[in-house]
Design brief:
Shape: flat
Number of helices: 11
Number of strands: 10
Largest sheet: 3 strands, antiparallel
Helix content: 40-55%
Structural class: alpha+beta
Length: about 290
């Protein structure tokens, strides 16, 4: 339509229906959608319309925005359980802050900064939430055993507890040493068994001495020396200590599966390399170089 001056007047577009359809799409694909998915699913919505709808959803706090290799990713925000808890507004605010931290937890000072509560008020709120078994405090191995807070039912991340190699935030050096010895003993036993059968030659002996991680895990489980179930990643960590000791080598089996065999160490190695990486702060910079 035209106005009095003759200029074309843009008619206001009602995007509410499109917003509803986008929300429905996100519910169908909880892992998140990008612009390409939006274009294919709602082709009649142009670029400007998509931006308007996404901005509406962001402004109302219904979705989260993430960076992904293929561009921006839009996800429906999970509803907070804060509205369901019994307590005053301060408790709901603190609960929601702790809830968003996931299983890595959040420091006391960060809760205080985000909530705006005084220390005395915050201590009272946290004590109440802990008494109701809604949140819990967990000592972190990364910061001199300072506490982080998370929801009561969550299993703390390994970066907080230190994983298998820590008990009450203390490194279990004796446990690691026993596992180191038993894993090495298993490799030696397999090597002796393979060496006894000399009919196939050196190559057959070498291949016969290779051991899968799953076999080592089963052996350790049968020994009953671990109070917790060791994952294959845990066994790999122990095997790395044997490699650094010069007592084992790693090879790739069929399908790329890691396999290990015993080798004779030429020199003694320092005790430092007998500890698995655990929560080493520079593990990302570590490599076989």
């Amino acid at each position: 339509s035209k106005n009095m001056s003759g200029n074309v007047k843009e008619e206001a577009v009602d995007y509410d229906d499109f917003v509803v359809r986008i929300v429905q799409l996100m519910q169908d694909i909880p892992s998140g959608i990008n612009d390409k998915v939006l274009m294919n699913s709602i082709p009649e919505l142009d670029t400007k319309g998509r931006a308007t709808c996404i901005n509406k959803l962001l402004a109302t706090g219904k979705i989260d925005l993430f960076k992904a290799p293929e561009g921006l990713l839009y996800k429906l925000k999970a509803p907070s359980n804060a509205i369901n808890i019994r307590g005053d507004q301060e408790e709901k605010v603190v609960f929601k802050i702790i809830e968003t931290s996931g299983n890595k937890g959040i420091w006391l000072r960060d809760i205080r900064a985000q909530s705006g509560l005084l220390q005395q008020q915050l201590n009272k709120v946290l004590k109440s939430l802990e008494a109701k078994k809604l949140v819990k405090s967990v000592k972190s191995v990364n910061a001199n055993k300072k506490k982080v807070y998370m929801l009561y039912d969550l299993e703390p991340d390994n970066s907080v507890t230190g994983g298998t190699w820590y008990s009450d935030q203390d490194f279990e050096s004796e446990f690691v040493e026993i596992l180191n010895q038993q894993c090495h003993r298993f490799l030696l036993h397999r090597e002796e068994k393979a060496s006894a059968n000399k009919s196939g030659g050196p190559l057959a002996v070498r291949n016969g001495s290779l051991v899968k991680v799953s076999e080592i895990a089963s052996y350790i489980s049968e020994l009953g020396i671990s109070k917790v179930t060791l994952r294959h990643e845990d066994i790999d960590a122990i095997m790395k200590t044997l490699i650094y000791d010069g007592k084992a080598e790693r090879m790739s089996g069929d399908g790329g599966e890691a396999m290990y065999r015993a080798v004779k160490s030429l020199v003694d190695t320092p005790g430092l390399v007998k500890s698995p990486c655990g929560v080493c702060p520079v593990i990302k910079d570590c490599g076989e170089r």
